[in-house]
Amino acid sequence: MAANVHQDVERVLFAEEDLSRRVREMGAQISADYAGKDLLVVSILRGAAIFAADLVRAIELPLEMDFMAVSSYGNDTKSSGVVRFLKDVTSCVEGRHVLIVEDVLDSGLTLSSVAESFAARNAASVEMAVLLRKNVANQAHVACRYVGFECPDEFIVGYGLDYAERYRNLPFIGVLKRELR
Ligand code: PRP
């Protein structure tokens, strides 16, 4: 790992300007769709934290933020196939419009498990906003109402996405150099 994390990136896939433009568009769409509704934005730690922080600032409605922590990967690069719930929301969910915010949809295991966990909580609605939908075979079907970008199946880091807990602080999304994986 270089002293400057920018130097560990092979190429940029989504530049800072692309991300901020698309996040603003998503925020405007969400603002229109949820006008007059009691909105609870739930972001999934840790990866979605940076996207969620930008997305809520692009939504011009009253809303509440909450967080869940879920892990399916550990420090490995492949899904273990097991979703562990590490932290639940503390807000009241019943009767509210829940928007789950996630950074990336890969196998779909995480979002489908999280969505399922909301099914029994009597929310008024449960929808999902994902920044990146990876183009992978055998992805679980997850009905995401808002998708930022379709993304190739590359080894991506940045803007919340990590490799072994590093690189989340890159302001863009890029492909990690092969020799570092
Ligand atoms: C990543 C990402 C999503 C999940 C997507 O989380 O943030 O939550 O994997 O993959 P899936 O569609 O195959 O389930 P990770 O478990 O790496 O934890 P993190 O959010 O702390 O980085």
TrEMBL record:
Subcellular location: Cytoplasm
GO MF assignments: guanine phosphoribosyltransferase activity; hypoxanthine phosphoribosyltransferase activity; magnesium ion binding; nucleotide binding
Entry-linked SUPFAM superfamilies: PRTase-like (SSF53271)
Pathway: Purine metabolism; IMP biosynthesis via salvage pathway; IMP from hypoxanthine: step 1/1; Purine metabolism; GMP biosynthesis via salvage pathway; GMP from guanine: step 1/1
Record Gene3D superfamilies: 3.40.50.2020
Reported cofactor(s): Mg(2+)
Highest rank taxon of the organism: Bacteria
One GO CC term on file: cytosol
Chief localisation class: cytoplasm
Family the entry assigns: Belongs to the purine/pyrimidine phosphoribosyltransferase family.
Protein name per UniProt: Hypoxanthine phosphoribosyltransferase
PANTHER family recorded: HYPOXANTHINE PHOSPHORIBOSYLTRANSFERASE (PTHR43340:SF1), HYPOXANTHINE-GUANINE PHOSPHORIBOSYLTRANSFERASE (PTHR43340)
Species the sequence originates in: Candidatus Aveggerthella stercoripullorum
Reaction catalyzed: IMP + diphosphate = hypoxanthine + 5-phospho-alpha-D-ribose 1-diphosphate; GMP + diphosphate = guanine + 5-phospho-alpha-D-ribose 1-diphosphate
E.C. numbers: 2.4.2.8
Keywords assigned: Cytoplasm, Glycosyltransferase, Magnesium, Metal-binding, Nucleotide-binding, Purine salvage, Transferase
This protein's encoding gene: hpt
